[in-house]
DNA ligase
Amino acid sequence: MFTPKPLTISVVFAKLKEISAMSGNASQAKKIERISSLLVACRECEAKYLIRSLSGKLRIGLAEQTVLTALGQAACYTPFHSAAAVKGCNSSGLLDASVGQGAEQWKARVETAVANVKKAYCVCPNYDKLVAGLLADGPDGLHLHCFITPGVPVKPMLAHPTRGVTDVLKRFDECDFTCEYKYDGERAQIHVLSTGVIHVYSRNQEDNTAKYPDIVNNLMPRVISSSKLGLQYQKLLDGDADVPESVDSNTVSCVPVESCILDSEVVAWDRQANQILPFQVLSTRKRKDVEEATVRVQVCVFPFDLLYLNGVSLIEKPLRIRRQILRNTFSQLTGEFMFATSLDSSDTDEIAAFLDESIKGL
């Protein structure tokens, strides 16, 4: 027996990526083999942190937001990553770019860099691309490398709870609100690629495509084939027009939907009673290797946001516009694909009544 070589960060990282990419027959045995080879080479406390890394719980107090903040700050303090950029710069400037900068000016620069890193990670949660973009063009150029792309799940925008409708109205003072039903289901980010490939992702960016063959192979192809983007909205996407009040797809020229990212809620649905079933029913569906013919729990997709359409990111556009494009482009299918029930209002009584209606029968 010979002593294995000491582990290095690059070797461990490469092995972990190798393990995560394994799938199919005998993948379990192959994963065990790779993990065993790493454990054999561990020294001192390395095995403990290797196991924690594999389980996804390091438990060292390092939250994701801390990592993103550190990346933004590091890119500010050490901005020179090429030989050409280093020329003519003194050693202190290489190690600390804040040298010679005013305190307020430097603080603003760091805050902007951190904000850019966090924004880029939200639309492209991939550290490989994020770090490569920072090295190439710094925080200000991240938008050139990290952007919303079908097939790469976007970090979800989550709500913050409040004590009641009145608290929300006070906080935003006279603003119009959009209220939507919160469905008792599972978040589903549906990606339709221009190649026709369809993926379904969870709120944690897990690939749930195999869990919903009925959505991927049956429902979404029908939805896409029946959906049309009016040229008025195409011009809006291109930034050449105002928001049209309404569009009759029968009287205007339309283009087909080629790619999109929909944010939605998938709920269990009773086709006979034509109503939503409790989440507990949805949770009985298998998670892996599901065959469409064996599906017993039928689902309905409730889309509530449109993040991307035909090659254009809609994230920077207001929700009002995104939802208007969503509802004027896609066609509803009763009991299968229906828009989330919503209300736009700034009237407290009206909003409270809408809330009461949404929870009726619970």
Notes: The first strand starts at residue 177 and ends at 180. The mean pLDDT is 87. The longest helix spans residues 103-123.
